[in-house]
Amino acid sequence: MKEEKPMDKFLEEMGASEEEQEKLQEVVSLLSNMQEELPSSSFQSSLKERLMQQAQEQKYHVDTGSAGHNRSSNDQENPVVQIPSSKEKKESGWKHYRPLFAVATAASVIVAMVLFSGYGAQLWGRDSADSDGSSGRIVAIRNLLKPPEISILTDKDELPDSDSENEHDLAIDPDRERETATQEQELEKDEQDSVSADDDQKEDVPTTDETPSKKEKSPEADSDTSDDEKTPAEEKDDGDEIDKAEQEKDEQEKDEQEKEKDPLSPEPEFEIWDQEQDIRLAGIVDLPELKYGKYDDEELDQVGNIEYSWRPGMIMEASVESVGTTDWAKKLLSGEGFTVSQNDALKIEEQETQKGKFVEIKFTPSRRSALPMVVYYQQDRGIISYYYQEKGDALEAGYYPLLSPSRAFEQVEDVPVYSEHERLDFSFRKVSLEYHEFTLKKDDREQSVKMPAYRFKGMEVTKGSEEIDIYLPAVKIP
Amino acid sequence: MSMEKKEQELVLRAQEDPTNFAPLYDHYFPKIYNYIYHKVSNKQLAEDLVSETFYKALANINRFEWQKRSFACWLYTIARNQVIDNYRKQNPVLLDGSEEELPSPEHNNPEEKVLRDVSRDELIALIRTLSQDQQDALLLRFQEELKIKEIAQVLNKNEGAVKALMFRGLKKLRQKLELERGDEDEGRKTYG
Predict the structure, then answer these.
(1) Hey, which of A196, A212, A297, A358 would disulfide with A268, CB 3.0 to 4.6 Å?
(2) Cβ A36–B30 below 8 Å, yes or no?
(3) What is the pLDDT of residues A460-477, one digit of tens each?
């Protein structure tokens, strides 16, 4: 156990109150006194042994390299991977085999050129097709060949499956992953079914539980067998098909009867949902820093003790009767922090379904910098989803799902704030949807990317500052 | 001879002759192991990552320069990169510090101060819900006892940013601990 340390000074520096310092000091004590994990001595010694072997090999290289020869900077940097020095080459009899080696190298270069020229033509041929407007898959292939660059991917851009590096680095919407996993499971299941069906056919054992889908997977088998030569199993299949057709007919009739009884469609069907696109960020968004107060001094400290709150303008429950009216829509959007002015356009579409009333609100602000937005509302549930309309300025045109302002606001904690104040309390009340240039980072590369962002407007409450704007990505970030 | 001087000499000797790496290994092995274990909380994985760390350190010992940072910082940076690479492979979402939703203050019990009986495993599990940078800042400061300046070198951030990370990390950890404690008490009330 380590000795308990005196109060860490930085807590005071961060502007924590005495009570807060005391509480946090308890956590500091827990961390400091956390029992150390002891490694097994056998692992420690076996690793040491392996490392010493490695060191021996390195030593050999260093020794031979330092014997009167100037090594390249690369060799100096990486003593493990080294090119033999000219002296080493000479000593190892390299010179004797030099002509033979040259011939072999030339031959292999020719073979490689012949092989790879064909391969390259295929890939670049596909790539040139891309420029004619073909699918995003080819873009992905081209991107593998080009030096990697950071970009926003839409759902049409497929990621290469085999590139594990890309797979891990590119943030993928978890919902999407789940969907993919389900699809994969279904595919696997189908494959298994088809395999078992094939096996059944091979063994020529009549089965009673073959499904029509299995039959569809082996059309050759069907065409080879005439009606006269039907096996009992096949006859049973025919019977099953007739039964199934009858069942389907019954179900259709039932549906029609139900429709007559209940003319409402079971689910809402909004056009925009068919045009839905998806964004996946190919990197990590580096949120821009906020400097608060007098920031002439460049040596401002980053503030850790900050409180943030998001209290949108008016939270009000619109009465059931007024759902779907313009006033109701204005109130709903205001409750979410959006300002709806007189010149802004609001287009409302209602759909009554078996699941209740759904409302689509198309909100097109008159302010040029603001983006057109679509909000979906379900009676008794409130706002269920947000979309924005991309006209092709930043991404492919279409409708892209957004986070709600509240969800997007959760990222505010990652904004680095610099100030001469030790403690700040920000309160935000208004929001608008705009484009913003964010820095997207991937490995050591970074790139400025224009993407939809919520611009939160608020102020520091303890100092009563002027309005502060913070831009946060409005789309899911990794 | 000061510790720093002694370490400098050891590093210099290892740079001249890699077989002299052993004393550095002996000194730093438990620290690096401890740091990595608390980051991954899995013995087997910790061993793999520790091996990788020391292999990399040995292979690149000649690239190390005293002017930039201490040897300890350099070693912790390699270890941290190993852990991050591993997270990338295992779970790309967590890498970016996607943190669990914080409990709202209303659910906390501010009077609850009995945090001392929290088990190490519980504490490690809670630490791992913090962002990667917050975890590193807290572990390097309070477990590995690095100075804030050194942590800043490992994390490639300025000292102010490290203090902010530590402060927020501690605050979150406190909230999570209180919530855990509150849940446990709730459980006791219900079943106990």
Answers:
(1) A358
(2) yes
(3) 888 776 788 999 999 876
- Residue A113 in any domain: the answer is no
Least confident of A51-55, A201-205, A357-361: A201-205
Residue B111 to chain A, least CA–CA distance (Å): 10
Residue B158 lies in a domain: yes
Domain membership of residue A133 (yes or no) is: no
Q: Are residues B116 and B178 in the same domain?
A: yes
- Partners of residue A23 in chain B, C-beta under 8 Å: 113, 174
Contacts of B164 in chain A (CB under 8 A): 14, 302-304, 416
Dihedral through CA A433, CA A430, CA B176, CA B162, nearest 10? 80
A434 and A336, same domain (yes or no): yes
B143-179 pLDDT tens trace: 998 988 899 888 877 787 888 888 888 988 998 888 8
On whether both A251 and A317 belong to a single domain, the answer is no
Interface contact B114, partner A, CB < 8 A:
no
Residue of B nearest to A22 (CA): B113
Q: What type of residue is A246? A: E
Q: How far is CA B21 from the centre of its chain?
A: 24
- With respect to residue A134, please indicate whether it lies within any of the assigned structural domains: no
Would you say residue A46 lies in a domain? Answer: yes
Task: Produce one character per residue of A428-461: b if its CB has 16 or more CB atoms within 10 Å, e if not.
Answer: bbbbbbbbbebebebeeeeeebebbbbbbebebe
Structural domain span for residue A197: 176-261
- Say if B164 is an interface residue toward chain A (CB within 8 Å): yes
CA distance A121 to A134: 17
Mean pLDDT for the stretch of residues A2-13: 61
Distance of alpha carbon A181 from alpha carbon A193, whole angstroms = 18
Partners of A29 on chain B (C-beta within 8 Å) are 116
Cβ distance of B161 and A11 shorter than 8 Å:
no
A19 interface with B at CB cutoff 8 Å: no
Q: Under an 8 A CB cutoff, do B160 and A478 touch?
A: no
**What ipTM was predicted for this assembly?**
0.78
Q: Residue B67 is part of which domain span?
A: 3-95
The verdict on B87 and B117 lying in the same domain is no
CB A283 within 8 A of CB A372: no
